[in-house]
């Protein structure tokens, strides 16, 4: 009996809930597969998709967003073996699943620990509440390919932001496979967009884009590139998240700072009187 | 003055004489809380209408349909076919009632009139530079008179939304009064174009304005802007006609139009009529649906109830 | 006339056993004293349920203690969270079954059990599941600890929802529980026990002991419990407070209410009328935070009453399983007798009584929606909690008078304000002595929002971040 010939998967970009090839028609060989090599135009398209998704996602109830993030955890659990087959250690997959659960629970709690009533000296109701900043560009860490990626995406979107993520160039397969999980988790199209390819090509386009509200430089290892991106980001005063270059301990309790870095605080005043 | 039952009927006829009086009155109407109104509408939408009640509702809904075509591409042949369908919506079933009216552009009125003559199906024409209303008043009135002269016994006019939104209530009022006069014996339906009025407070004010000016019906929409009839908008309008009758003794009809495509939708509206204004409005004289594709869905559901099997669109005429 | 044909929800979805034991240490165990649980809409016996004696209670508390010490207490919050998420999902998946059973056992309309109770129950577990691994962020210090074993006694008005309000935060914080549902509505709690089994929740973490007052007393007075949470009447709450005095048991009480629903002359009238109806007729008025006192500004009183009566005439009273029923059955013969007694007192004291024409079923426990006008602060119907579909209407002239009347009660659970003026809402809210103030809405609940009373409506809060405090050693 002859051995079955496998059907191989095409690894494409993830933009607006769809899986297009790069508009440039380019790909690069990595992890024994041809992966789309995203262009600046792909980055632009991804920002358009992310912007279009902001209204619905930020406007969804926190409960709804929490349910969807938990659904991502459920779907990821179901595809555990698939990630292991891509070379992701099993305990990393488990940690990634748990991370979705951790952040899922934050959707309706962060405003309760990060907002609140302000006792102003006067007859006024005064309440501060966090709101998402909008579209966030994220350079994902080189590794761990799955846990690192989840650890930067989940805190950005749980509060209502949408993201354009530049995936790890050397290990993009986990990112594209995660996109397949996201696409089947009731997550609205455009909330997460994933670009594979060169950071040096996509990140400057995202950092300079005037319709991006914040940028997370976690995955930028080259200090001079990070500075260049910060300078570009300054043009429209993007919020910049640039963690210390020291090794991240992705297995530690993530805390809440990754969420709060990508929020605005809105304070409402209203008089009290008859 | 507030908008519910009072033992003494109010004389509101003088309001239209002054911009200030109109404004004071309309701004004195009770506000509409958006969240509460939408929740009430959604709640009514959960009523479960089954078996005999459903059969009754479907036949009533068919009788309330203003079967409508308002396209630049309309031709005499197209509107005649539509009129024929209005008379006998389901040729296979003689027990199926005819619709309430056929609604067309003024130029199409004569062609429809030939078909409908003596049938009891009303002939409605849009007028007043439908759908935008952006024409000189004389043109709008001429449009109205022409439609009536050609045989329309119902006129669907549009209000001047620009004037309304900039607070020129008397201008809106005067146009409705003039159009009503131009209608002669024809019934006047006043289209508020609620999708452009933006708030329920505005819908309530525009409803009262149209009724004070003499409209026989208030209608939600032209069907030509993105947001057409919705349940909460219709709820606010039903509350307005209820309160107006309490205040003045005159009953005004309501016509949601646009976007009502399924039997399920139509039944939700009937439930809302039933539980907001009651049986007095559950009649084609007082409630209509401005729709086109709704009729075939009503017919399909009607067949399902009588035969017990789900039908398909191939079995109903596409006119 | 448009008459709605009957639209009954199928009861075939739920499989009721003929008799139920107690749920102790992960298993159903047979008890000795069986009592009937009836459908209040028909008086049909639904099942026989064990009434736990003090030995049964003792076994349950010991099972809870063991589970606390060996399994649940030491378990990482992350894993407790996963169990609670599982339970939330199972409730979502089996929601229709639970809703039908709730309506059968309680008498509430299916549209409420289906559209209000069950979604809130699932959401409550979902919300507190998320807290289990985030306790250091809850504002009670870096490493807050659970209390141990919680004794929880809940009422019959929202059987499953009250269970969720009790069990979800307790488990999230790391406690184990022994819960006693009300004697007239035990069935959904027992189905919940099956869900705990289905979720593979470790044995002993949740124990359900059914029974009446004696069972409840044995539970709250058991020396092995560290926490007592009670929802029910102020009278029983007071007795519990006395009984735990000196024991260092932490106590949460959610008790009676006599809420004022205050309507100003600039209110959105149509929505206010809906809010009044929802405030008092939701769940047959079996709601501790019901808006049972309508305070309406004199200048619109006549208009509001006329609209209210017109609206009340549309309420559909009858078969709880009919999807179009607005008002179901009164939960028990005892409760019906109490509603009748207080209503008769209202008439005897000179208030004017009105109900819409309304045909009530012959069997079962029913009471027509009723309003009393011409009520003063001195009337019993204005002071005592009726816990039924009975509204007392009073009037006021100024905001200050509204506040004064609203606060003139030993209760302080909730209040409602209806006005288009935002600053007046906030001015009123500052002065109302009530734990929940609804403005231009009423009877809204959410797992993120703390609920609980001032004064004799109890203490402690359930829901939200604050709801954790009652289950933590802080």
Please describe the biggest sheet of chain C, giving its number of strands, its sense, and whether it closes into a barrel: 7 strands, mixed
Question: What general form of chain C does the structure show?
Answer: globular
Q: What ranges of chain A have pLDDT less than 50 throughout 5 or more consecutive residues?
A: none
Dominant shape of chain A: globular
- Count helical runs of chain C: 15
Proportion in helices of chain A: 40-55%
Q: What's the rounded overall pLDDT mean of chain C?
A: 97
Distance from N terminus to C terminus of chain A (CA atoms, Å) equals 88 Å
Radius of gyration of chain C: 22 Å
At CATH level 3, the topology of the largest domain in chain C is Aldehyde Dehydrogenase, Chain A, domain 1
Query: Rg of chain A to the nearest angstrom?
Result: 19 Å
Question: How does the SSE layout of this entry go?
Answer:
The complex is a heterotrimer of chains A (274), B (319) and C (474).
Chain A: E1 27-30, E2 33-36, H1 40-59, H2 62-78, H3 80-85, H4 90-104, H5 110-114, E3 116-117, E4 124-132, E5 135-139, H6 147-157, E6 162-166, H7 173-183, E7 192-195, H8 199-208, E8 214-216, H9 223-234, E9 239-241, H10 257-260, E10 263-271
Parallel strand pairs in A: 5-6, 5-8, 6-7, 8-9
Antiparallel strand pairs in A: 1-2, 3-4, 4-10
Helix pairs in contact in A: 1-8, 2-4, 4-6, 8-9
Chain B: H1 19-27, H2 34-44, H3 51-64, E1 65-68, H4 76-87, E2 101-104, H5 109-116, E3 122-126, H6 137-149, E4 154-158, H7 161-165, H8 169-183, E5 187-191, H9 194-197, H10 200-212, E6 217-219, H11 231-248, E7 253-255, H12 263-276, E8 289-291, H13 294-307
Parallel strand pairs in B: 1-2, 1-8, 2-3, 3-4, 4-5, 5-6, 6-7
Helix pairs in contact in B: 2-11, 3-12, 3-13, 4-5, 6-8, 10-11, 11-12
Chain C: E1 19-20, E2 22-24, E3 27-29, E4 34-39, E5 44-50, H1 54-72, H2 77-93, H3 95-106, H4 110-131, E6 149-153, H5 159-173, E7 176-180, H6 187-198, E8 206-208, H7 213-220, E9 227-231, H8 234-244, E10 250-254, E11 260-263, H9 269-281, E12 293-297, H10 298-312, H11 333-348, E13 352-354, E14 370-373, H12 380-383, E15 390-396, H13 399-407, E16 414-418, H14 422-431, E17 436-439, E18 458-459, H15 466-469
Helix pairs in contact in C: 1-7, 2-4, 2-5, 3-4, 4-5, 9-10
